[in-house]
Amino acid sequence: MQTRMKEFRARTNMTQAALAEAVGVRRETIVFLEKGKYNPSLRLAWQVARTLGTSVDELFIFGGEEDE
Fold it and tell me: pTM of the full predicted structure?
């Protein structure tokens, strides 16, 4: 999975810590999401996208064998 979280966070001037607090997770979870090391639940993906003012499919790019 690839993500555009860092790009969308920059657009909103939101830190990883602020995003984590807004969606109710630890900052480390945001770090792992941004690096593509963690696949979020649908609920978390939706919360992050909503907080960053975008949609799940704009924020996360799913596909490829590594995602299976």
Answer: 0.85
